[in-house]
Amino acid sequence: MKKVVALTGGLVLLAAATSAQAIDGSVTVGKKYTNINAGLGTSTPGLFLNGNWMRSNDDGNLVGLGLGYNFAYDGLMLSPGVRTMYVNPRDSKDGYANAIGLGARYAFNSQFGVYGSYYWAPESFSHNIDSYQDIQGGVSFSPISMLTLNAGYQYLVLNGEHNNKNNVLADGPYIGASLHF
Fold first, then answer.
1. What is the pLDDT of residues 88-140, one digit of tens each?
2. Which residues lie closer than 8 Å to 86 by C-beta, 6 or more apart?
3. Higher confidence at residue 53 or residue 17?
4. Helix or strand holding residue 75 (H, E)
5. Strand ranges for 6-94 from DSSP E
6. Which residues does UniProt assign to the signal peptide (predicted)?
7. Residues facing 33 on adjacent strands
8. Long-range contacts for 76-84 (Cβ within 8 Å, ≥24 apart)?
9. Helix or strand (DSSP H, E) at 158
10. pLDDT tens, 16-38?
11. Do 112 and 89 form a contact (C-beta atoms < 8 A)?
């Protein structure tokens, strides 16, 4: 039943985001983790949908789907959103987390910008983990309109439930690249 609800919710999110115009994909690589993202409307004002797969060399992986809305004003973009993730921590049971959060980006000009985000899921929004936190921030450089290069720092932790070990999927600097169509 949970799988049917999750699949139905994902299809509803996808249908809601069909009005988004811009498609993008990105890869970020840290010392012990890799994150692959795809999205619709993530860099333009309005509704956005994104998904990702993240793998940690030491602590497991996750697959996520997010939905939010981008508010833009004079170079600043605020992006409140929700994410649902299937988590597969190395040292505890598989589970899920439903997080709420906020992202922010500021473009100094057409080439340089800064960004950050924070997403959090308490125990009541999670299953088989106590809580989920994802904090990241960095700088971006766009040499051409369809390419963005990123450098930043990410900390993503799955806090263990019932005295299980915490699984830190990301904790360190990363570099990345995004293509926008």
1. 887 778 889 999 999 999 999 999 999 999 999 998 998 888 889 999 999 99
2. 62, 63, 64, 94, 95, 96
3. 53
4. none
5. 23-30, 33-40, 46-56, 60-73, 76-89
6. 1-22
7. 56
8. 76/104, 76/105, 76/106, 77/45, 77/104, 77/105, 77/106, 77/107, 78/102, 78/103, 78/104, 79/48, 79/103, 79/104, 79/105, 79/117, 81/48, 81/119, 83/119, 84/6, 84/9
9. strand 147-160
10. 544 446 899 999 999 999 999 99
11. no
Rounded Cα distance, 110 and 140, in Å = 10
Q: What is the pTM for the complete model shown?
A: 0.84
Domains of the chain (ranges plus CATH)? 2-180 (2.40.160)
pLDDT of the residue at 10? 54
- For residue 9, give both structure tokens: 């919710």
Closest CA to 44 of 16, 24, 25: 24
